[in-house]
Amino acid sequence: MTRSFQNGTTGQYLSECRSGSYFAAAPKLLLLIDVGERTLAMAQRVVHHVTQVLAPSCVPLFLTDGFKEYMTTLLTHYGQWRQSERRYAQGPAPKPRWMPWPELLYAQVIKTVRRRRLVRVTHRVVFGTFERITQVLAGCGWHINTAFVERVNLSIRQHVAAVGRRVMTRCKHEAGLRQQLVLYQVYYNFCLPHASLRLPLPQPEPTHGHGSAKRWQPRTPAMATGLTDHIWTLREVLLFRVPPWPQPAEG
């Protein structure tokens, strides 16, 4: 059984993929992988989870494809009631309207495909201004695109056989697929070093063999965000004892 999936991340810059994954391009941290049909309910679950792990005052830049339900979802979580100004001295007062926060920035990447070939890519600014979005991305040398999260989706398909394309290793139940994706999420964040996150060493370190000296310190997304100080092994992940969730006090 194969279903569409979504993944997610945190940071100042957030990108979101076609099937529903959130990914923070700066620390490369994968926040969430969801399974199910691509609907408004799924988009609400993913964005709600992302807002829960972000700081209350953090409003990241969102980049997605042209799925229209994301606009509704972002407006739900990053909106407020506003009273419009009266235009005329007489007549009824205008009704309050639900409007996005002024700091909310959201743009879409619209891809036009004909006969299975990509023929055009356009950008649509939904919330904010094109100048403001360009200014935020220019600080990292980026532009409006969803390439980061699309690359993460490719990594997921390469590591989790059940979500690969044209494969025979399908899951019998959705619960089994969710378990595989959760395990990969932990592996991606804590065990898999990312080349763009590595740091130069103050001094090259000699290796045990006859190769060149070590010049870079590899880092995982969890290390880049300060969640851990070392690269975890898969054995360390499987033997880690997760603390129990806080239980409500009995009355």
Unreliable segments of 5+ consecutive residues? 1-5, 8-20
Q: From N to C, what is the helix and strand string?
A: EEEEHEHEEEEHHHEEHH
| Inertia-based shape | globular
Number of strands: 11
How does this model look, in words?
This protein is α+β, with helices and mostly antiparallel strands and 251 residues long. It is 29% helix and 24% strand. The chain contains seven helices and eleven strands. Strand 8 (105-114) and strand 9 form a beta hairpin.
Outline the fold blueprint.
Elements: E1 5-8, E2 13-16, E3 22-24, E4 32-35, H1 40-53, E5 61-64, H2 69-77, E6 79-82, E7 97-100, E8 105-114, E9 117-127, H3 130-138, H4 147-159, H5 174-190, E10 199-205, E11 214-217, H6 221-224, H7 234-239
Parallel strand pairs: 2-5, 5-8
Antiparallel strand pairs: 1-4, 2-3, 6-7, 8-9, 10-11
Q: What keywords describe this structure?
A:
251 residues; 7 helices; 29% helix; alpha+beta; five-stranded mixed β-sheet; single chain
Q: Can you give me a brief rundown of this structure?
A:
With 251 residues, this protein is of the alpha+beta class. The chain is 29% helix and 24% strand.
